[in-house]
Specification:
single chain, alpha+beta, N-terminal domain of TfIIb, Arc Repressor Mutant, subunit A, 2 domains, five-stranded antiparallel β-sheet, two-stranded antiparallel sheet, 7 strands, globular
Length: 148
């Protein structure tokens, strides 16, 4: 299995979301296959390259040439698109916003824990995380936003 925390192949220029025009980040096809609902999966065109739209105000999650999947087409909520406390920040190890806040208040370090799991090659971000890449950046940013 590829290292899920590696940056995906960067040979393609960033593309803009057709809905909000924000630059998206290319994701592997395996990410979409793993996370789209059974009703959305037949609309996937495996011949296309898809990108992830990180804009929290945009309903679109994945897009390509003439194809879009919104947050309702995914099996789970998307961290960047849903601010609820029970939404995962780390999909591989079940760290929700709520769990992270609780851990921080109990003097635990979720970033260290997740880093150790990644180093032990236990993550599967390409099939668990809707952005198709490592969540450590999201976790670190969220931890920094918490008032202790």
């Amino acid at each position: 299995m590829d290292d899920c925390c590696q940056v995906p192949d960067a040979k393609f220029a960033p593309v803009s979301c057709p809905s909000c025009h924000q630059n998206g980040k290319r994701v592997q096809l395996i990410t979409l296959k793993a996370l789209l609902t059974p009703s959305a999966l037949p609309n996937l065109n495996p011949a296309l390259f898809y990108a992830f739209c990180p804009n929290p105000d945009c309903l679109v999650v994945y897009f390509s040439e003439g194809h879009m999947f919104d947050k309702h087409d995914l099996k789970m909520p998307v961290f960047q698109k849903d601010g609820a406390m029970n939404v995962p920040v780390c999909y591989c190890f079940g760290w929700t916003r709520e769990r992270i806040v609780e851990a921080i208040h109990n003097n635990q370090n979720p970033v260290q824990y997740i880093t150790e799991q990644v180093q032990a090659e236990r993550c599967g971000c390409e099939v668990n995380n809707p952005q198709g890449s490592c969540c450590l950046g999201n976790v670190t940013t969220f931890v920094r936003s918490i008032d202790v």
